């Protein structure tokens, strides 16, 4: 029954059926016809999944990021990054990676970050002689920082699936996110080593850029400080951050308009509806897994196979890499986490470590066709056909796979910070 549910879902996916229907149709058929469950059971489970209090943080973080973009915060973060590293080899590319990292610290939405930062940086990079295909691929790859550096929508969803505190999942992504940022910077330094360097910004110019960026830089301290200080839940921190973003836009930068708030609300509603539709229908598969005891059977198989932690995580990485090629990262979580969480617990793999392995490999789906939603988003910013950027993929995919393997073999990068909480 599980094989039929997954097989029918993959078939619908290849037929370009929307992802929420991919989950809903196959799994509901198995649940109703094969397991004789009433519709009411599926509806109750779906309702319970989308009404978890922690998920309220998702639309609020998305809204915060969109307001930050419309209030000029994103542009000021770009100016700060350019002032700091613009004179390095490939300085504009490095500045885009750094800005993605800054933006990740208060947005949480991968596509919002690619659009926000890419709209500012990508035309400037192309004007300065950077390859259009390299620029698009770099922007899509840097978008993965949003899934690692807290706050992250992926971390919130993973916590809702596993029961791991959001504060722990957030903490697990800090060092892996910084390592990924360093890896991308090294890649840009090597790839753009022969490009003409920009002039160094004076000390006064760097200080001015820093002062202008202070309101934006304060946002992560408001969010994470409130959470780790025990003052705010993740949802409350997201709400406070959204209010702070509006205050910054109206009273500090004075660039935010009421029309921009309405636009941000509309875009937040669209993005959130997509995410929550997937969450609701993906729970149908969870019902099938529960009634067929598939996680227990999978655990018995791995234990009988004699798999250790490393072998298990390598298998998880390969599966997530393959699934990420066809499915976005959030559906991959709902498809795999309920199965592999039980195996990880039995083998003694920390669930925070499992989260990073899932994210590192499934996140490569931002780049890999046919879905490659990150690549399509970045290409759309500059009206480039995404398939023209495919020639840049081998280098980025090789680096991404090496990064994922590194995360498997160095669990301390993931587990040390959560262990202090």
TrEMBL record:
Annotated membrane topology:
Multi-pass membrane protein
Q: Which family does it belong to?
A: Belongs to the TRAP transporter large permease family.
Which InterPro entries does the record cross-reference, listed alphabetically? DctM, TRAP_DctM
Location in the cell:
Cell inner membrane
What are the TM regions of this chain, as residue ranges?
12-35, 41-65, 77-96, 102-122, 134-158, 170-190, 210-231, 237-256, 268-289, 301-323, 330-349, 355-381, 393-417
What's the chief localization of this chain? Answer: membrane
Q: Name one GO molecular function term.
A: transmembrane transporter activity
> Where would I find the TRAP C4-dicarboxylate transport system permease DctM subunit domain in this sequence?
8-413
Organism source for this protein? Pikeienuella piscinae
Q: What subunit structure does UniProt give?
A: The complex comprises the extracytoplasmic solute receptor protein and the two transmembrane proteins.
Entry's Pfam families?
A: DctM
Q: Which UniProt keywords apply?
A: Cell inner membrane, Cell membrane, Membrane, Transmembrane, Transmembrane helix, Transport
Name of this protein: TRAP transporter large permease protein
Q: Give a yes or no for keyword tRNA-binding in this entry.
A: no
Purpose of the protein: Part of the tripartite ATP-independent periplasmic (TRAP) transport system.
Specify whether Transmembrane helix is a keyword of the entry.
yes
Any one of the GO CC terms: plasma membrane
């Amino acid at each position: 029954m599980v094989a039929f549910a997954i097989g029918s879902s993959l078939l619908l996916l290849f037929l370009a059926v929307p992802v929420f229907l991919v989950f809903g149709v196959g799994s509901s058929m198995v649940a109703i016809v094969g397991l004789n469950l009433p519709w009411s059971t599926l509806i109750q489970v779906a309702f319970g999944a989308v009404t978890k209090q922690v998920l309220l943080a998702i639309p609020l973080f998305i809204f915060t990021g969109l307001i930050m973009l419309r209030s000029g915060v994103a542009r000021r973060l770009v100016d700060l990054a350019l002032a700091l590293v613009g004179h390095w080899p490939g300085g504009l590319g490095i500045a885009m990676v750094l800005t993605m990292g800054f933006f990740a610290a208060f947005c949480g939405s991968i596509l919002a970050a690619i659009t926000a930062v890419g709209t500012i940086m990508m035309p400037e990079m192309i004007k300065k002689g950077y390859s259009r295909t390299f620029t698009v691929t770099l922007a899509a790859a840097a978008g993965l920082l949003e899934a690692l550096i807290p706050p992250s929508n992926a971390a919130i969803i993973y916590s809702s699936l596993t029961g791991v505190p959001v504060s722990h999942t957030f903490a697990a992504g800090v060092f892996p996110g910084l390592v990924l940022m360093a890896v991308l910077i090294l890649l840009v330094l090597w790839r753009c080593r022969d490009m003409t360097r920009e002039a160094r910004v004076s000390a006064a110019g760097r200080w001015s850029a820093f002062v202008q960026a202070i309101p934006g830089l304060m946002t992560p301290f408001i969010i994470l400080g409130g959470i780790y200080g025990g003052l705010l839940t993740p949802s409350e921190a997201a709400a406070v951050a959204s209010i702070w973003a509006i205050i910054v836009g109206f009273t500090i930068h004075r660039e935010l308009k009421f029309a921009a708030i309405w636009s941000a609300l509309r875009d937040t509603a669209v993005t959130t509806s997509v995410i929550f539709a997937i969450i609701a229908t993906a729970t149908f598969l969870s019902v099938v897994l529960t009634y067929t005891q598939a996680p227990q059977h999978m655990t018995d198989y791995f234990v009988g196979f004699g798999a250790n932690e490393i072998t298990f995580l390598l298998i998880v990485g390969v599966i997530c890499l393959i699934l990420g090629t066809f499915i976005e990262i959030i559906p991959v979580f709902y498809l795999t986490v309920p199965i592999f969480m039980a195996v990880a617990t039995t083998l003694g793999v920390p669930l925070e470590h499992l989260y990073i392995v899932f994210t590192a490999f499934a996140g490569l789906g931002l780049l890999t066709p046919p879905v490659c939603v990150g690549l399509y988003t970045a290409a759309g910013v500059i009206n480039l056909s995404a398939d023209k950027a495919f020639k840049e993929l081998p280098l980025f995919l090789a680096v991404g796979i090496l990064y994922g393997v590194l995360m498997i073999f160095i669990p301390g990068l993931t587990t040390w910070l959560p262990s202090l909480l």
